[in-house]
């Protein structure tokens, strides 16, 4: 049976551990808050392309958004410096959602510039993260996949607004990319509940895009450009 002095020492060590844990989490939270602020700025900037008056400014807006990613890399490096070695997933919940959002923003930016789907490695490069979990602070694969699914919803919105702006080719390009994305996800056996639910939303996104493209086709607009 432990003596009273032993119990005191034992619980004192527990308190020391809890204080250390709390301090680490607080430092991580502060660093993540800075990253979240930057993510909101990029989101606001990229979503401005949905405004009809900004339709011709997409390249300019993309270049401006791209400039934020050097800052994002620095902010991730700051977070990584506060995470103890080999404890990535112990604290992962702190930056999980902002990483999903930034993966979405990187994918959306890539689509706007190249009309294609970004790969896992290029997303990690844009964020300044590793792809190999053995290397420590890395881009979690499920966070990347969630970002791609969020992008599909944003592309659906873009398809609608492109028609309003008179750009009848954009929905066709969007349909191609989202169809490819859907085909890729069909190959996965999703165990993660949130990923599976988000993938269900992708099916509805694709259906809506197909309806937009079909409507353009029967109206004879699918071969017209915004300048015609």
TrEMBL record:
<comment type="subunit">
    <text>Ring-shaped heterooctamer of six TSN and two TSNAX subunits, DNA/RNA binding occurs inside the ring.</text>
</comment>
<comment type="similarity">
    <text>Belongs to the translin family.</text>
</comment>
<keyword id="KW-0238">DNA-binding</keyword>
<dbReference type="GO" id="GO:0003697">
    <property type="term" value="F:single-stranded DNA binding"/>
</dbReference>
<comment type="function">
    <text>DNA-binding protein that specifically recognizes consensus sequences at the breakpoint junctions in chromosomal translocations, mostly involving immunoglobulin (Ig)/T-cell receptor gene segments. Seems to recognize single-stranded DNA ends generated by staggered breaks occurring at recombination hot spots.</text>
</comment>
<protein>
    <recommendedName>
        <fullName>Translin</fullName>
    </recommendedName>
</protein>
<keyword id="KW-0479">Metal-binding</keyword>
<dbReference type="InterPro" id="IPR033956">
    <property type="entry name" value="Translin"/>
</dbReference>
<feature type="binding site">
    <location>
        <position position="154"/>
    </location>
    <ligand>
        <name>Mg(2+)</name>
    </ligand>
</feature>
<dbReference type="GO" id="GO:0043565">
    <property type="term" value="F:sequence-specific DNA binding"/>
</dbReference>
<keyword id="KW-0694">RNA-binding</keyword>
<dbReference type="InterPro" id="IPR002848">
    <property type="entry name" value="Translin_fam"/>
</dbReference>
<dbReference type="GO" id="GO:0003723">
    <property type="term" value="F:RNA binding"/>
</dbReference>
<keyword id="KW-0255">Endonuclease</keyword>
<keyword id="KW-0540">Nuclease</keyword>
<dbReference type="GO" id="GO:0004519">
    <property type="term" value="F:endonuclease activity"/>
</dbReference>
<keyword id="KW-0539">Nucleus</keyword>
<dbReference type="GO" id="GO:0016070">
    <property type="term" value="P:RNA metabolic process"/>
</dbReference>
<dbReference type="InterPro" id="IPR036081">
    <property type="entry name" value="Translin_sf"/>
</dbReference>
<keyword id="KW-0460">Magnesium</keyword>
<dbReference type="Pfam" id="PF01997">
    <property type="entry name" value="Translin"/>
</dbReference>
<dbReference type="GO" id="GO:0016787">
    <property type="term" value="F:hydrolase activity"/>
</dbReference>
<keyword id="KW-0963">Cytoplasm</keyword>
<dbReference type="GO" id="GO:0005634">
    <property type="term" value="C:nucleus"/>
</dbReference>
<comment type="function">
    <text>Exhibits both single-stranded and double-stranded endoribonuclease activity. May act as an activator of RNA-induced silencing complex (RISC) by facilitating endonucleolytic cleavage of the siRNA passenger strand.</text>
</comment>
<dbReference type="InterPro" id="IPR016068">
    <property type="entry name" value="Translin_N"/>
</dbReference>
<keyword id="KW-0378">Hydrolase</keyword>
<dbReference type="GO" id="GO:0005737">
    <property type="term" value="C:cytoplasm"/>
</dbReference>
<dbReference type="InterPro" id="IPR016069">
    <property type="entry name" value="Translin_C"/>
</dbReference>
<dbReference type="GO" id="GO:0046872">
    <property type="term" value="F:metal ion binding"/>
</dbReference>
């Amino acid at each position: 049976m432990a003596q009273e002095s032993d119990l005191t020492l034992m619980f004192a060590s527990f308190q020391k551990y809890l204080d250390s844990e709390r301090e680490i989490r607080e430092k991580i939270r502060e660093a993540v808050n800075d990253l979240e602020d930057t993510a909101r700025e990029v989101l606001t900037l990229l979503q401005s392309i949905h405004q009809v008056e900004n339709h011709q400014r997409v390249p300019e807006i993309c270049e401006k958004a791209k400039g934020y990613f050097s800052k994002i890399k620095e902010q991730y490096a700051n977070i990584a410096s506060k995470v103890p070695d080999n404890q990535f997933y112990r604290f992962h919940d702190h930056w999980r959602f902002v990483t999903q959002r930034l993966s979405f923003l990187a994918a959306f930016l890539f689509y706007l510039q190249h009309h294609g789907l970004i790969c896992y490695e290029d997303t990690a490069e844009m964020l300044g993260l590793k792809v190999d979990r053995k290397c420590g602070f890395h881009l979690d694969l499920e966070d990347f996949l969630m970002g791609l699914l969020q992008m599909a919803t944003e592309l659906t919105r873009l398809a609608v607004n492109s028609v309003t702006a008179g750009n009848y080719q954009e929905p066709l390009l969007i349909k191609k990319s989202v169809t490819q994305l859907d085909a890729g996800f069909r190959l996965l056996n999703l165990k993660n509940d949130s990923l599976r639910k988000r993938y269900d939303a992708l099916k509805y996104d694709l259906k809506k895009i197909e309806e937009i493209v079909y409507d353009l086709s029967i109206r004879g607009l699918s071969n017209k450009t915004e300048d015609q």
